[in-house]
């Protein structure tokens, strides 16, 4: 599939989305996908390209040869865990996913540390709601819940109070809002903070320089890295909170960081035997795929194999 036939390329992709591709056409699409970023039809918009890439991750890759998986053992406990997941479907699953978290006092601070692989929901005293992703933490002084500090990833639905702005502090920036919904990624290992605004308006200020600030509008994503200017892009932010319902979502980060997040979320250690192309930038959204399905999808992007031994993942 080449750029001199953009109408045929687009028609074939639309046929794939409708689920009407023949095996021969699927093979053509697989070959094209391998060079999607280097040589894509000129008449496809960036949004269409990203949409088709997502569809490949969720559907197309499962129709072709999956990456090799090597298991040294499958403990009985994993089969029991799988059975438990089925029993927890429906309302029981949502209860597990959104367990209410209670803060722990530490001096004059209140701290919620999510040490599990599940999402924790926090109801603050001002009626604001915060969802903490796996291994994230939120802290605030006992005297107020309108100024908090976040490490890791959190999704905020802030109760409106025009007299008292709500402030989120991370290592890299300060986020000030009146009443809005937004997602914050402040993973220590990634050395940057990313804010995606769903609705409302927020003011962002660099922690290292109070004069370095910007305003964010709905549908915008801002990234701040040390010694770098603000990087603001426009994107579809509708999916940024899907992780609060069990999804796995990353936007504009390297495959290396995406896999690291996935493994950390599932309490697994990670080892790379091959580092080729792991800095490739991706955006993916997996809606309720299992850990292994998500890992397989990410490895497919790099044409790599993986091995799971207990709680240790090796990619080569």
From TrEMBL:
Q: Which GO terms describe its molecular function?
A: sigma factor antagonist activity
Instruction: Name the residues that span the membrane.
Output: 76-96
UniProt cross-references to Pfam families, sorted A to Z: FecR (PF04773)
Q: Which UniProt keywords apply?
A: Membrane, Transmembrane, Transmembrane helix
Q: Which InterPro entries match?
A: FecR, Ferrdict_sens_TM
Is Ubl conjugation among this UniProt entry's keywords? no
Instruction: Please indicate if the UniProt record lists Oxidoreductase as a keyword.
Output: no
Highest taxon of the lineage: Bacteria
Q: Where is the FecR protein domain?
A: 118-203
Identification of the protein by name? FecR family protein
Organism expressing this protein natively: Filimonas lacunae
